[in-house]
Amino acid sequence: MPDIPVIDMQAVENLRALNPGDNDEFLRELVGIYLEDTPHRIAELESGLAAGDVAKFIRAAHSIKGSSANLGATALRREAEHLENQARAEGLGSVGVSIGRVKAEFARTQVEFARLLPPV
Questions:
Q1: CATH, domain 22-114, list 3.60.15.10, 3.30.1370.60, 3.40.50.1100, 1.20.120.160
Q2: Alpha carbon of 42 to those of 19, 30, 46, 76, 85: distances in Å?
Q3: pTM here?
Q4: 11-68: pLDDT as tens digits
């Protein structure tokens, strides 16, 4: 599978274009919400796995996939989509390693957003 960027800069530019000239205030707000919410969704993955709750697990993976896609977090979106599809097809038996990849991609995403949007 070809390496994809952590953040799709075209998606970031599209979000910036929604509120031009605001010194990235709108983008910072969206990214802040995303960075605050995603750990909760990852916790839902873990609790869904622990409880054997496939539906909860799939909802959490789907939520991470969607929010990541909206902000251009392409690598995390790809991992969340893989996790969602894996759980749908195979259940929760082999998703533990994939949760680790989601966590790793989220960490990379945090670093990239911090680099793109340094504190003002």
A1: 1.20.120.160
A2: 30, 18, 6, 12, 16
A3: 0.93
A4: 999 999 999 999 999 999 999 999 999 999 999 999 999 999 999 999 999 999 999 9
Q: In Å, how far are 26, 35, 62, 98 from 85, measured between CA atoms?
A: 32, 23, 9, 11
Domain ranges, ordered by start, for the chain = 22-114
Q: Compute the distance between CA of residue 56 and CA of residue 109 in angstroms, rounded to an integer.
A: 24
Which amino acid is located at 36 in the chain? E
Tokens for 64, please give them. 């991470």
